[in-house]
Amino acid sequence: MPIYFDKNTRTFHLSAKDTSYILHVLKNGAVLHVYFGKKMKSPNIYNLLKFPHINLVDTDITNFGNQLMLDFLPQEYPAYGNTDFRSPAYQIQLENGSTISDLRYLSHKIYKGKPKLEGLPATYVENEDEADTLELELYDKVANLKVTLIYTAFRDYDVITRSAKFENMGKEDIKLLKALSMNVDFNDSNFDMLQLSGAWARERHVIRRPLVPGVQSIESRRGASSHQQNPFIALLRKDADEWHGDVYGFSLVYSGNFLAQVEVDQYNMARVSMGINPFDFSWLLKPSETFQTPEVVMVYSDSGLNKMSNTYHKLYRSRLMRSKFKDKERPILINNWEATYFDFTEEKLKELAKEAKDLGIELFVLDDGWFGKRNSDNSSLGDWFVNKEKIPSGLDGLAKGINSLGLKFGLWMEPEMVSPDSDLYRRHPDWCIHVPDRPRSESRNQLVLDLSRKDVQDYIIKVVSDILESANISYVKWDMNRNMTEIGSALLPPERQRETAHRYILGLYRILEEITTRFPDVLFESCAGGGGRFDPGMLYYMPQTWTSDDTDAIERLKIQYGTSIVYPLISMGSHISAVPNHQVHRITPLKIRAHVAMSANFGFELDLTKLSSEEKEEIKKYVEKYKEIRKLVQFGDFYRLLSPFEGNETAWLIVSEDKREFLLYYFRVLGGANEPIKRLRLKGINPDFNYVLEDDGSLYSGDELMYAGIVIPELKGDFQSIMMHFKEESIKNG
């Protein structure tokens, strides 16, 4: 089995595809972390646990006092208050006020398959032979607390997943002050840390920095995973790059407040921990109650970042997304938002749809402004009934009209929010997140509904279900445009107020579980002011996400490049928009806007009726081409070649699984004078194949493209791009 327990040495060895993860139980029951990295066939645990002054396998340690300082030992799920002064993975408070805990080994189970996590999204298996699971039970006999560490090793991926489950086995209350999902103690700190950071319209920029003594961390306290930080970090050896070196990825399957941190201690050991942010968090565990932490997906790569990314892409595409659309090609859509904003009529929408049909577009999406008295962003969120002044025939009539043109119909909604100027708020002012006697801060003239309340959850499930049943709606863009402030719930008692933010996420997951299960034929796209909740938790329910509200092609180079560090292309929405761009006011050629958008889920975000005949003809060609390459883009393997964070050029490659077809994209931001010849060496293709370039029929050998490279044609002017489509010679001649 991929998970093996050696009774003699009290050692667990977890094996994923080419990865080993090893932990050891001391004779006194303490659990140490031993190794995480390249697979080892039969490691000698005596060597791995040998320190200059002590051999931990042979030593019978009965207590943690003067005989052993935990402060220099690598641990599996560390506590605070004994002899380890580093950041703990968890912390509890007992009724007597004490916060000391001491977990020791109790028992374990090893079995095939992977368990579901109660109330939480997580990766899964379709066959129990795909993975093996270890449940390691630890117990604190003073607190009567049982903690089960849950590990799953995937057989076909370099993936270990981790989470923890807390259970109060006693008769007194226990308060969780901190409950992270995982901890890994490395024996050294010779790493760089990579994170994906930014802001609204500038999401997931790649930041790489060396580890230094002390704590370095990223986090969100906003109630969502956030535009500012993505719930992901990676540790890279100093020599690691896209193609070489050891890389360790840590990705949290969660959509709320999180913490990911690395602490470098006095011995230059690096402690990585990740999970729900303990800031403004606590959870009351009554006797017999349990608490389940979210899952962390850990990926090891011995060949740089690109291999790590491809592992995440394949796993998340096939064993995180649950939607029936995970294996289906996604439609080309037009969204009316940047074409009309709130100012539209039914006639205008149908005019846009007719233009879309003529261009080969497949899905028309009606964005904000169709409900209540919504003519701006200052009212009506929560009043989910059709504005008949704008749409006299209602959603059903409009959908039928769109369908009669040969297009599918989609709809924007923001169910988690409420406008103070709405019938819903006037009926239920306590339904929003708020704190008594404090102002209710508004953002975009809206408040956040309290999804920790079951009555609010039930309301959202009902109104969304009613809308989806009222018309032939094939797609939903589910938006969330503000973060939480004055976090509190009218229904929770004082001792549970700090549970509100997490209970909100659990409520959101319950809503999404109900709705996506009821409407399996609807393609759901997540949005949070663009990319403010682009995380694995949302991908579990909604197989694609609006990558950013910034639709500028040049800005999108960095955004989509950074997003690809963890997330597959099929999860990214990317659209051609008008120029000057509405976010940065830049004017770029249609060609580069198309090539950037055609690198992900392709769509449009502009007024098609205002295009010239020449632009329409050009767009038709892009739509036709995307339909030809769509399967390759959405299901191919992605390779980053040139980084927009390192220079004036960006390049990436998408290769079919059998390597018989690939797409090469090259982007140059600014032109230069008398530029040297640019030759780009490719990755991931078959060196033994001969490839034909579709554009001109030129023949290239795979080894030539990989080792000598291909010359980039001369480009004139700023904001230029090339997309080259290659097919293996026998396919082309076939």
TrEMBL record:
Transmembrane residue ranges: none
SUPFAM superfamilies named in the record: (Trans)glycosidases
Catalytic activity: Hydrolysis of terminal, non-reducing alpha-D-galactose residues in alpha-D-galactosides, including galactose oligosaccharides, galactomannans and galactolipids
Record has Iron-sulfur as a keyword: no
InterPro entries: Aldolase_TIM, Alpga-gal_N_sf, Alpha-glycosidase_related, GH, Glyco_hydro_27/36_CS, Glyco_hydro_36, Glyco_hydro_36_C, Glyco_hydro_36_N
GO BP, sorted A to Z: carbohydrate catabolic process
Positions of substrate binding: W200, D367, D368, R444, K477, W478, D479, M480, N481, C527, D549
GO molecular-function term, one example from the UniProt record: alpha-galactosidase activity
Pfam families found in the cross-reference section: Glyco_hydro_36C (PF16874), Glyco_hydro_36N (PF16875), Melibiase (PF02065)
Glycosyl hydrolase family 36 C-terminal domain ranges (all copies): 649-726
Positions of the Glycosyl hydrolase family 36 N-terminal domain: 30-286
Catalytic-site annotation from UniProt: D479 (nucleophile), D549 (proton donor)
Assigned EC number: 3.2.1.22
Keywords: Glycosidase, Hydrolase
Family of the protein in this entry: Belongs to the glycosyl hydrolase.
PANTHER family hit by this protein: ALPHA-GALACTOSIDASE C-RELATED, GLYCOSIDASE FAMILY 31
Protein name (record): Alpha-galactosidase
